Amino acid sequence: MIPVVLGLVPLVAMFGLSLQVDRTGVRVRLIGLSRPIARASLAQIASAEAKDLRPTQWGGWGYRITPHGRAVILRGGRGLVVHLADGKHLAISTDAADEGAELVNGLLTQPGRGTSTGTPHAAR
């Protein structure tokens, strides 16, 4: 697992991120790759918030796994923090942090959450 994580750090720095939020949850992909590097189903999510992120809070730049969760950090500043039901977090650097948090929290209040697909919202 460690070589894979270490290998993702330069890739994350070289490529942009695609953040997708929809009724199935949150997914983070490197632009150009089809498989998500991080995801959380809506059923796993307790809430979300837009927050100022500092790379030092998450162990540096790139894809990080820490005792308090996972992070995809390309820069300091505004980001989306997804609070999971198990107490861990998923943090993502994005210019659309406020919109992403609003969308996630709105989806969490809908009946039958996490059971159907909908139109995704993508942000960079």
Which oligomerization state do the chains in this entry correspond to?
single chain
Count of helical stretches:
2
Uncertain stretches: 1-13, 114-124
Total number of beta strands: 9
Strand order of the largest sheet: 4-7-8-6-5
User: Beta fraction of the residues?
Assistant: 35-45%
Query: What integer is the average pLDDT?
Result: 82
Structural class: alpha+beta
Largest β sheet strand count, sense and barrel closure: 5 strands, mixed
C-alpha-based Rg, rounded: 14 Å
Our measurement of the CA-to-CA distance between the termini, rounded to an integer number of angstroms, reads 27 Å
How much helical structure, as a percent, in the residues? 10-25%
Order of helices and strands: HEEEEEEEEHE
The gross shape turns out to be globular
